[in-house]
Amino acid sequence: MIDQKALLAAISRLTAAMEREAPALNEIDGALGDGDLGITMIRGMQAVTAGVGEMPADMGQALLRCAQAFTKTSGSSYGTLFATGLMASAKALKGRDSFEASEVSGLIAAARDAMQQRGKAELGGKTVLDSLDAMVQATAGLSEPGEVARAAREAVRQSTEAFKDKPATVGRARIFADKSRTMYDPGMLAMTRIVEAVTGEP
Question: Domains plus CATH for the chain?
Answer without folding.
Answer: 2-198 (1.25.40.340)
